[in-house]
């Protein structure tokens, strides 16, 4: 990905004159933001890695797979949150890992961890670089140096069991690469988070990712049948059979562990044949409460859409303003919902009909397929718009949470009020992104003027929103993970005893404390 923005520079989006006018009217944004430095102009703090350590790392992985050059350090200096990108625009000295190491197999990873434990060097596992919660911050944690452990060479389809419907995928495979390898054999994983084009199989597991097709295929952790993990204390292979009663499920220690307990090297996953048919239908609801009740009815009755999501009134309006044309579809008022169905023709028709009956009975009005197809066509493009907004002088950031259906309305109100209180005049958008029989996830997008000190302003807003989430009964994160940004709320999320359990596991697996310091586990 581009070092100071999201994704492929060729796919960057320019804001239209109308959208710039809307920003000026709504937020007082009247001009372009000051440009940041070019990659050649960026000043990184000097590498602290010693020549002796570099030599030892080169012995572990090969000289060509170790670098302390600024050109290699800069792209791994952090993730892709708005604060990350604002820091990349600074002309002050910036943090970066002291070196980059690119192992090719588990033996090399084990050797790297041994070198780093002996020399007190922190290790930050790196996949696609898409973290938006500070999960890739190159923190030394009081150690001598920090290296980025880039896993991109672990990029194989190791096995495909077509009888059982399981595939073993290397942790360094990106979403598109994994799907391409499976599609050659007529299979699909079907995990499509917004980060899909760049994020990796290992990253999906390490962050408990949830894709946009989760209503049909489940969260990533639900797809996982087994894991291989290299830790400083040894290597683990976890997951036997389709289910087990052999004590606590140790896979769960590493799903969501964010590289703090070990390095995930391969994941055995449930896969399914490529769908023969897709059907799309969009819906309009008069208000968010009516739409939310409709989604709850669909999920609790089990009618089986692959995708189902609902935008509130503000997000519906903004999405339409951002879309030049939606295939001649009728104008959308109220709240827009999207449904998609996949499978063979008979199954798709049956599930589509059942879902349509529920949504009509719940007060929905069909808009046909065009708005749903338009959403699907652009579903990975929103981060590019965030970059354009930053260039125009507007701060744009997201956060997400989840709660039971009974708590969802008060959670939405609490978070919205916290954000608008901290950022007066901000535009706060919300959608239901994932649904479960007992509750749902809310995904918020915040747009405000950058102001004089956007990092401080957003930090205050994030703290207010995090406190509101915990106070209203939500989880501090549904699918973005904890990283450094959500770590302050982990004690409230899991309790003092829960924190002590995590620390005890960390001490057993990583006694030198080298794995991704400053993330997930409160100090």
Automatic annotation (TrEMBL):
Organism, scientific name: Kitasatospora cathayae
PANTHER family according to UniProt: ALKYLDIHYDROXYACETONEPHOSPHATE SYNTHASE, PEROXISOMAL
Protein name: FAD-binding oxidoreductase
InterPro entries in alphabetical order: Alkyl-DHAP_Synthase, FAD-bd_oxidored_4_C, FAD-bd_PCMH, FAD-bd_PCMH-like_sf, FAD-bd_PCMH_sub2, FAD-linked_Oxase-like_C, Oxid_FAD_bind_N, Vanillyl_alc_oxidase_C-sub2
Listed SUPFAM superfamilies: FAD-binding/transporter-associated domain-like, FAD-linked oxidases, C-terminal domain
Pfam families given in the database record: FAD-oxidase_C (PF02913), FAD_binding_4 (PF01565)
Coiled-coil residues: none
Recorded family membership: Belongs to the FAD-binding oxidoreductase/transferase type 4 family.
UniProt keyword annotations, A-Z: FAD, Flavoprotein
UniProt keyword Oxidoreductase present: no
Domain FAD-binding PCMH-type per the UniProt entry, residue ranges: 93-274
Residue numbers spanned by region Disordered: 70-98
Regions of compositional bias (Basic and acidic residues) in chain numbering: 85-94
């Amino acid at each position: 990905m581009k070092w100071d923005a999201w994704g492929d520079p060729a796919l960057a989006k320019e804001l239209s004159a109308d959208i710039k006018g809307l920003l000026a009217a709504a937020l007082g944004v009247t001009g372009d933001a000051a440009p940041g430095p070019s990659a050649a102009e960026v000043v990184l703090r000097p590498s602290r890695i010693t020549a002796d350590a570099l030599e030892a790392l080169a012995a572990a992985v090969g000289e060509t797979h170790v670098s302390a050059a600024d050109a290699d350090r800069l792209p791994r200096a952090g993730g892709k949150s708005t604060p990350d990108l604002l820091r990349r625009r600074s002309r002050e000295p910036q943090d970066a890992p002291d070196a980059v190491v690119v192992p090719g197999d588990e033996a090399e990873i084990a050797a790297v961890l041994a070198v780093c434990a002996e020399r007190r060097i922190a290790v930050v596992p790196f996949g696609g670089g898409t973290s938006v919660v500070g999960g890739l911050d190159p923190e030394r944690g009081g150690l001598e140096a920090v290296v980025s452990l880039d896993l991109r060479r672990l990029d194989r389809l190791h096995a495909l069991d077509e009888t059982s419907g399981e595939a073993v995928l290397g942790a360094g495979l990106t979403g598109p690469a994994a799907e391409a390898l499976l599609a050659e054999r007529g299979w699909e994983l079907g995990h499509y988070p917004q980060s899909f084009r760049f994020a990796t199989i290992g990253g999906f597991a390490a962050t408990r990712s949830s894709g946009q097709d989760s209503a049909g295929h489940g969260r990533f952790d639900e797809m996982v049948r087994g894991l291989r993990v290299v830790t400083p204390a040894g290597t683990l292979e976890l997951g036997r059979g389709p289910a087990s009663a052999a004590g606590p499920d140790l896979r769960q220690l590493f799903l969501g562990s964010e590289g703090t307990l070990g390095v995930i090297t391969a994941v055995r996953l449930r896969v399914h044949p490529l769908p023969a048919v897709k059907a799309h239908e969009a819906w309009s609801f008069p208000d968010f409460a009516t739409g939310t009740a409709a989604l709850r009815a669909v999920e609790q009755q089990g009618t089986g859409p692959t995708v189902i999501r609902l935008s509130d009134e503000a997000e519906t309006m903004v999405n339409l303003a951002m879309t030049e044309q939606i295939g001649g579809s009728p104008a959308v008022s109220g709240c827009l919902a999207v449904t998609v169905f996949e499978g063979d023709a008979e199954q798709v028709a049956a599930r589509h009909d059942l879902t349509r009956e529920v949504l009509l009975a719940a007060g929905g009005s069909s808009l046909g397929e065009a708005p749903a197809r338009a959403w699907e066509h652009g579903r990975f493009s929103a981060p590019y718009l965030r970059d354009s907004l930053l260039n125009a002088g507007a701060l744009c950031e997201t956060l997400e949470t989840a709660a039971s259906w009974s708590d969802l309305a008060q959670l939405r109100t609490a978070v919205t009020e916290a954000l608008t209180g901290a950022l007066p005049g901000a535009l706060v958008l919300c959608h239901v992104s994932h649904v479960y029989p007992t509750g749902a996830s809310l995904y918020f997008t915040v747009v405000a003027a950058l102001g004089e000190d956007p990092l401080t302003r957003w930090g205050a807003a994030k703290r207010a929103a995090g406190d509101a989430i915990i106070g209203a009964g939500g989880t501090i994160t549904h699918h973005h993970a904890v990283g450094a940004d959500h770590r302050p709320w982990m004690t409230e999320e899991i309790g003092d005893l829960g924190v002590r359990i995590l620390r005890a596991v960390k001490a057993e697996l990583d006694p030198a404390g080298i794995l991704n310091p400053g993330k997930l586990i409160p100090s």
